[in-house]
């Protein structure tokens, strides 16, 4: 019975991470980048998948063997560092959650013809209902799995309907004609940046799956999470490529909805609504749960009333969206912030992996640490390049 429960939690953690990554920004970015890079976007996806797996394996394993959350690991390395990282992640999570609430409203508008504000409030209510259930962890796992399967099936249908040029996509995945550092940074930041990479690791910790004996299970769950998110990304890329290949014009105002509609007519547009709602509502849950997990160890009261704090986080996100409106610029800033946070948090985890007072007798694989260091270097270089380019543009 325990083994079956563990399997359910491991799958749930993987889907929580994946569905946290697959939000409104994820869907829009994939479509927009396919427009700008064409079949060469396949190379960017492949590169980001390799980086994502390296990041997840390093972070989830160290969280499991240390039996501590990321902020507590950081504080053990340098007092106050955990608080600084938590602050960055909570603000990034809040910014993303405002976008998630907006995306859920847009999804219900496309699916049911509902007003965006009404749809956003209803979606927030569904997310809040998960945390009102006594066994909120199990409810969150099941809901993430259900919504994940819904998204995968719908996007595969759209990809098949658009009849993409598979040979061209396969060739340019390995021999790209165009390259763009900003795109890679954005994709990695949006898939494993900020709070996202810690969502599944913290969930496994809360469920009691920890210690050196759980390393293999944790590693499988981490790879599964990246695989689910990558599967959705690949099929959405193929769907967009099929539409572009036919010379059809994608609406810049709502590119993903346009791809779905051009590929499969009115049914496609309704499926876009379903996918957007599923992506956004699960991201609301993942963002709120993980952001609060970064502050609950700082106060016994937050830990004691965790679900209430998560509900308050969702309510604040919803109120800000209703009062302020569409947070497009906020999402862009949050995406860039996530990409910049990643090398900092990963470097902290890699240092902790070799501190016996944190991980005990656990021996972190050298190949994994080297891979992690390469990711830190690459992401730091990309982040600095993007920031310098952005600042140069402001000065000019």
From TrEMBL:
The lineage of its organism: Bacteria, Pseudomonadati, Bacteroidota, Sphingobacteriia, Sphingobacteriales. Pfam families: Nramp. One of its GO terms (biological process) is iron ion transmembrane transport. It is a multi-pass membrane protein. Its main location: membrane. Keywords: Membrane, Transmembrane, Transmembrane helix. It comes from the Bacteria. GO terms for molecular function: cadmium ion transmembrane transporter activity; manganese ion transmembrane transporter activity. One of its GO terms (cellular component) is plasma membrane. This is Mn2+ and Fe2+ transporters of the NRAMP family.
